[in-house]
Amino acid sequence: MKYSPIVNGQTQASNHEDKRAAKTEMGIEAHLEENSQTANDKEDLFREEKDEEPPAEKLSPLRRLALVASLLFCVFVIFAFAFLLPCHGVKCKGEGNCKPQSSPSTWTRNINIFGFEPAFIKVFGLKNDLSTHIVLGYSVCQDRSKNGCSGGLVGYGGPNVERLWSIPTNSTVLAIVCRHPASSEYPICVISSNQSELYQISIHDGDLKWKVMVSGKIKSFDIIGSSDVVLLKGELSGLSKRSLKQPRKEVITIISGESGKMIGSSISLSVSEIDHLITTLAVNNTEFVLICSRTQSSVVAISVKDLYRKARGTCNATFVTKWGSHKPDPATGLIEVLTNAVPLQKPVLVDLNSDAIKDIVICGKGAENEQIQVMALNGVNLKLLWKVDLPSTSVDK
Q1: How many CB atoms sit inside 10 A of residue 256's CB?
Q2: How confident is the model at residue 1 (pLDDT cuts 50, 70, 90)?
Q3: Mind listing the pLDDT tens digit for each residue in 365-387?
Q4: Fewest Cβ atoms nearer than 10 Å: which of 40, 157, 232, 315?
Q5: Contact, 275 vs 293, CB < 8 A?
Q6: What is the pLDDT of residues 53-108, one digit of tens each?
Q7: Averaged pLDDT for residues 318-342
Q8: Alpha carbon 284 to chain centroid distance?
Q9: Is residue 188 a contact partner of residue 179, using CB atoms and an 8 Å limit?
């Protein structure tokens, strides 16, 4: 075949165009593949960014301190509301209006004892204890004709007024006297029985401190000093002490509160037929014993200091302890408190004029006109505070 320049030129041109087209197609395919790879890389990048969490940022020292302070404040608030802040309640406006919130307002206790007869009930409040303590004295008589009577004491207390202790006795309990010394948390209590027995107990746990048998009949008693007992008892006069028709003479005895033993000897006073005695404090903590006599229509007093001197037999000097302007008798030490009046009841001690000293309220009857009077005497100086006359027909004697 002969060589043709035209044909050869066309052929070469066609080849060049085919090569150029092939290159173009290859470029487009490469570009598409590059774009596809770029898109895949971007998707993988976004997927990695979504799946992986960013690293936690470290707290600065100031932020750490603020976090610890916040936690401590939360703990303090919880502790304050749980333990420090008091519960809502009515505030006390005075000591007389304050009531312990731990004890129930009303309660009932059943005592199933055959022949039970209550003798007395005393309610006490302790210094460091909001709960109320109650002492119940009782007697149990199965056969009175044979003197088959016994008795006992029961103590109740605590937030729910539960039974705390019990003390049985072989005789009927009659009276209880308690005093709360300033140096003691619990009051001192002395109980008497119809068999002339005295008991000193602790109302907190029912512990029996001592028990003593007294010769003669116990008429009245009270606590003097810190824990001693002043006792008024009647003794048969004359040689025939078994005869109940013989008149009795009253003597006063002081019994030690520590051991239950008698201090000194019995004291015979010039006052006869004494009915009651009661102790009270005057100015400067001077203690006196009030003595009431119906037969002599009088109320007299003697200082506890002079009473100890008489019991111990150390009365060499004259008595000088006076009550206000009332001076004692130099021979007997007795101070006249009220004359020409028959005391009908045991005097009542109460602070009427708010001077922190208990005044004396006496219900008596005139020795001549039979007029019943209620009078109040100042506990500082025995001056009359007030007096009220009552018609005898209106008073149940």
Answers
A1: 15
A2: very low
A3: 876 667 788 889 999 999 999 99
A4: 40
A5: yes
A6: 556 567 788 888 888 899 988 888 887 777 766 665 555 555 445 555 555 567 77
A7: 84
A8: 27
A9: yes
Burial of 70 (0-12, 13-18, 19+ CB in 10 A): exposed
Ramachandran bin of 297, using left for φ above 0, alpha for ψ from -120 to 50, beta for the remaining angles: left
Which ranges of the chain does DSSP label H, i.e. alpha helix?
Answer: 5-51, 61-79, 304-312
Residue listed under structure tokens 């019943």: 372
How many other CB atoms are found less than 10 A from the CB of residue 280? 19
Spatial contact of 107 and 160, defined as CB atoms under 8 Å apart: yes
Single-letter amino acid, residue 374? V
Determine the Cα–Cα distance for residues 13 and 16; give it in Å rounded to an integer. Answer: 5
In angstroms, rounded to a whole number, what is the distance separating the alpha carbons of residues 32 and 48? 24
Token output for 137:
């004295």
State the greatest distance between any 2 C-alpha atoms of the chain, in Å, as a whole number: 192
Closest CA to 228 of 257, 252, 199: 257
Give the pLDDT confidence score for residue 25 in this predicted structure. Answer: 59
For 326, counting Cβ atoms within 10 Å of its Cβ (0-12 exposed, 13-18 middle, 19+ buried), the class is: middle
Let me know how many helices (H) and strands (E) the chain has, helices first.
Answer: 3, 21
Q: Which residue has the higher pLDDT, 190 or 55?
A: 190
DSSP string, 250-286: EEEEEE-TTT-PEEEEEEE-S--SEEEEEEEE-GGG-
Q: Single out the residue of 248, 243, 236, 194 nearest to residue 218, CA to CA.
A: 194
CA distances from 283 to 3, 252, 288, 324, 356 (A): 161, 24, 11, 9, 10
The verdict on pTM exceeding 0.70 is: no
